[in-house]
Sequence to fold (306 residues):
Amino acid sequence: MAVFLDDRSDDERRRGHIYAGDLFLHVATPRSLELCEFARSLMREAFGGVDPEFAQFELPVEKYAEILAQLKPKFIHHPESKRIIRELLREMGCDPEQTYFDVPRMRTATSDGYLTTGIAYAFHPHRDTWYSAAMSQINWWIPVYEVEANNAMAFHPKYFSTPLRNSSADYNYQEWNANNRFNAAQHIKSDTRVQPRALETVEIEPHVCVLPTVGGLLMFSGAQLHSTIPNTSGRTRFSIDFRTVHRGDLEKFRGARNVDSFCTGSALPDFLRLSDLSHLPPELIEPYMPGHPQAPPKENVAALVG
Fold:
């Protein structure tokens, strides 16, 4: 794995490196900082003047989850979020006709185990491609406040090309949306939703932790194994993430190599074209709905399916 720092490569070359397992870290841009400030303005309103990074120490966990249940969808679906994302992607050299994005998510990682389920889920080691993401999906991650090594995200690069036995064969994106997406806030003490996970021990250490500045952009493949680092910083970590796919790459089935993803369904219906917010055509999505067109090597299947 290589980490490219503030690299000025064009989007074609950048995507190729990301599909090969490399990370790209870019300094904050005017639009990424604007997105962070917009998110902070919604947070300040939602928490009623309480500092969002420390609100967990002043509120009962049920009230905190209730606030997030209103705050996060408001940010996700706000027209201003889409507007800024579109300008940000243009700023980063993405082709408006070929690039499709999904709506940005606001993520929280509370400190010291305050809330790690449901609306503030602390992700175990996983690949997005276990969750019906295309092998060409690129993840973009932006910290809203300063992050440090004990409240950020970990990458486990050993596994980019090393398969893991996992339960992704039980996951279908369309079924998840129908049954689980809208009840996250109900899971406070525990989280009973079935999600893809490794079925063998993952070697967490050593891991790679990349720390962007506020508004900095971290780009990585949806096939990277990554996880939430348990937050012991004494502050809630707020971040924004969204995802992109390139139409030409989808048409050619170009992307990261599939080493162990067996899910069905597809997240592609969620994606919007940068230029005009139109959806991907059904005939392009159809090959992805039964499962990844880029199937894992046949010799791995029996050993990897949980």
